[in-house]
Design a protein that fits this description.
heterodimer, A: 2 domains, globular, B: alpha/beta, Rossmann fold, six-stranded mixed β-sheet, 9 strands, 31% helix
């Protein structure tokens, strides 16, 4: 595990600068919005849009980052270092995946922190409508975990597409795009094919999980897990495949 | 000489890139405990050959045996490779680059580091990005020489390096190489300054071995230095 953590630390250190920059920008946008609200220059809708801006760009930036962490290894020839290390390919990929997830967590943490600091009165107003701070925190953590799982699966698709594109000498962008389409279709197929195996699983009641009944929203959402589990297994398979391809089939001249 | 005496055996190795056939059936046997020069002009296939051994490039055919094993994750742990390209993370300090490499190899000898740093004239607190090309080449060599790896592969370690750094690197190799347990291949097209290093040489020309053998035997046989022989073969 030491080797994995060494790789993870390396990937985190490499992204310290952009992460710090984005965190700073997020806080500056929030502070600026706070000032505009305080001076009455902006209506609430505009302020809300401004605060949401970093949240909209965050997933895009993270997707770019998951592509970039691999691309930069080729661009700066450090892939020569990575590929000669006596470590399994999946560890290299897992370190990069974990780094993106940590970056996401940090950015989200900064956003929450900024919201609590700069928009305390608005948060207090919202809390009066919600059943309680414990409910908000609990649901916040659940949303965070769901979004983290979503992000991780998308990063796995991106990693596979990039690694496959590096196995060919030309039209790498096109190959990456096709790999994205093909792997999405494969995961979908995996979900459909394996669904009968997991039919015995009960549906997950999201309204109960999120305790929506406490706000008397009257929303009922049941999540059928049977096909989802097949898809997750498919994504896990893609992750293992990426590791194998990276370790055994990628060439520095590819 | 038996198979166990060979650090590396390559038979009929072939590699074709989309536009060029880089290796056309290369045969090579590197005796244990020796330093061999892989000599040839640019584009002769030297780098491809070394990349095939370490696993950075997949051969199209032929066989490679490293200490009796086919290339794998295990053989990667037994090879110290210095590529021609700048493969260091530029945002790291010299110390960080050393620590990063050290954590992946069981044969790492931390005790060699202070001496190597002093000899190569490197400040561990300096960022890699602030080092000159010669200094970075020295650092790459430190990362290889600090290991007790049975096989060392140095790809053009003197390319584009100032004479002072070149002399340091040659001296560093001579000092640190342990012939009882190590073998080494150095690829280069600058034979002059390095000839004294080689126990044996392989002349690679357009993907084929045009001449190979013990350096002393070749000098006796042709009555010339390896450098003159190189000039004659590749004239």
């Amino acid at each position: 595990m030491t080797r994995f953590f060494r790789l993870l630390r390396k990937d985190l250190q490499a992204s310290l600068l952009p992460l710090g920059f984005l965190s700073g920008i997020t806080l500056i946008v929030m502070l600026f919005t706070r000032v505009r609200i305080a001076t009455g220059s902006w209506p609430m809708e505009t302020a809300l849009a401004a605060v949401s801006l970093p949240l909209v760009f965050m997933p895009l930036w993270l997707l770019w980052q998951s592509f970039q962490t691999l691309r930069v290894e080729w661009r700066e020839d450090t892939v020569y270092t990575l590929l000669v290390l006596p470590v399994p390919g999946w560890k290299v990929m897992l370190a990069k995946l974990a780094a993106v997830c940590i970056e996401y967590s940090v950015l989200l943490g900064v956003t929450v922190f900024g919201t609590l600091i700069f928009f305390a009165p608005q948060v207090q107003l919202a809390m009066e409508v919600l059943p309680g701070s414990l409910w908000a925190v609990r649901n916040g953590i659940l949303v965070y975990l769901f979004s983290l799982a979503m992000l991780a699966s998308v990063v796995i698709f991106v990693q596979l597409a990039f690694v496959v594109s590096r196995m060919v000498g030309r039209a790498q962008g096109l190959v990456a795009l096709w790999t994205l389409f093909l792997s999405s279709w494969l995961v979908d197929l995996c979900g459909s094919l394996l669904a009968p195996l997991f039919r015995w699983l009960p549906a997950l009641s999201l309204d109960k999980l999120f305790r929506l009944y406490e706000i008397e929203a009257g929303i009922v959402v049941n999540w059928r897990l049977a096909s989802e589990i097949g898809s997750w297994l498919g994504i896990l398979g893609l992750f293992v495949l990426t590791g194998v391809l990276f370790e055994h089939f990628v060439e520095v001249n590819g | 000489m038996s198979i166990t005496d060979q650090a590396l055996i390559i038979s009929n190795l072939r590699k074709k890139y989309p536009k060029v056939e880089a290796l056309k059936g290369v045969d090579l046997a590197l005796p244990q405990g020796e330093i061999w020069g892989l000599l040839g002009p640019n584009g002769s296939g030297k780098s491809t050959l070394l990349k095939c051994i370490i696993g950075l490039v997949k051969p199209d055919g032929g066989e490679i045996k490293i200490l009796g094993q086919v290339p794998s994750r295990r053989t990667k742990a037994q090879i110290a490779f210095v590529p021609e390209v700048e493969n260091l993370y530029r945002w790291m300090t010299v110390r960080q680059a050393i620590d990063f490499t050290a954590s992946f190899y069981e044969d790492w000898d931390e005790g060699r580091i202070p001496g190597l740093l002093e000899f190569m004239g490197l400040d561990p607190d300096k960022k890699v990005s602030s080092l000159s090309k010669g200094m970075r080449a020295r650092l790459k060599l430190i990362l290889a020489l600090a290991r007790k790896a049975p096989l060392l592969l140095l790809d053009e370690p003197f390319s584009g390096i100032d004479p002072a750094s070149r002399d340091r690197i040659v001296e560093g190799i001579v000092r640190q190489f342990k012939s009882e347990v190590q073998s080494m291949i150095i690829s280069t097209h600058a034979v002059g300054d390095t000839e004294q290093l080689f126990d044996g040489v392989v002349f690679l020309d357009e993907g084929t071995v045009s001449l190979q053998g013990n350096a002393e035997d070749l000098r006796d046989q042709y009555g010339k230095s390896i450098n003159d022989l190189f000039k004659e073969v590749f004239a």
